[in-house]
Amino acid sequence: xxxxxxxxxxxxxxxxxxxxxxxxxxxxxxxxxxxxxxxxxxxxxxxxxxxxxxxxxxxxxxxxxxxxxxxxxxxxxxxxxxxxxxxxxxxxxxxxxxxxxxxxxxxxxxxxxxxxxxxxxxxxxxxxxxxxxxxxxxxxxxxxxxxxxxxxxxxxxxxxxxxxxxxxxxxxxxxxxxxxxxxxxxxxxxxxxxxxxxxxxxxxxxxxxxxxxxxxxxxxxxxxxxxxxxxxxxxxxxxxxxxxxxxxxxxxxxxxxxxxxxxxxxxx
Length: 268
Ligand SMILES: NC(=O)c1ccc[n+]([C@@H]2O[C@H](COP(=O)([O-])OP(=O)(O)OC[C@H]3O[C@@H](n4cnc5c(N)ncnc54)[C@H](O)[C@@H]3O)[C@@H](O)[C@H]2O)c1
Prior knowledge:
Layout: E1 7-11, H1 16-27, E2 31-36, H2 39-49, E3 55-59, H3 65-77, E4 84-87, H4 102-130, E5 133-138, H5 151-173, E6 178-185, H6 205-217, E7 222-225, H7 228-239, H8 242-252
Parallel strand pairs: 1-2, 1-4, 2-3, 4-5, 5-6, 6-7
Helix pairs in contact: 1-6, 3-4, 4-5
This protein binds nicotinamide-adenine-dinucleotide (NAD).
Nicotinamide-adenine-dinucleotide binds near residues 18, 61 and 191.
């Protein structure tokens, strides 16, 4: 989709790749709406980027359905028509499953998997009525491969991938001019996964964000970053026994130890 003059809503746009994607969209002359739980972060993004074009922000906790509905209503009242929705807000707990509290489990699933559906449910009706729109969901390579200390995060991202790519097929079956892109990045150096050690190079946020924006511009369907992760995992899982794939992913790719020293971003 050509993004110039389009209105882009980015959840989790106050930090990390969400913030970079906001700037990249403004540079392409799109109007940007940021949704984030972090008001200070929203204020900073607006201060830093308002010279690039039109950017507005709304404080919202996307794990709360009422807030999703009321904030969407505010967006409509302010006469914004969302052309492109990027469901990007996400969290990671980074512990063994047995160490998760029930709140950890629920929050991860709701923010990473349920919220993108609920937010899309607010904006899709207008897109369907206009027969135009774009939904981009930021999943993770964690949605392609099992990994210790990532079980709930993996569950949320597997879920997101399944919903997102099914939605793409539905739009096609309904012959709607609404594209859906599912993005599955490997680790990105944003702070979210601080402490992770990886044989496979950790991605730089700027380059990863640019790849996502280009995926939207080129109507891509489903991509991993780097691209080979998708083929390697899917192909390996298809041809190897589980034991052999475990050996390959654990010892050759080094995946299963990546989270051992995970700290995550230090709380401010
Ligand atoms: N960083 C990585 O290694 C990596 C790898 C693959 C996928 N991803 C995914 O990319 C997305 C962005 O990650 P990032 O690295 O930029 O992370 P980040 O922590 O820098 O940014 C996430 C943003 O989401 C916001 N957010 C969190 N909970 C929220 C809530 N309840 N309501 C509203 N906003 C909320 C945060 O305030 C923050 O601004 C996430 O979905 C993440 O799972 C990240």
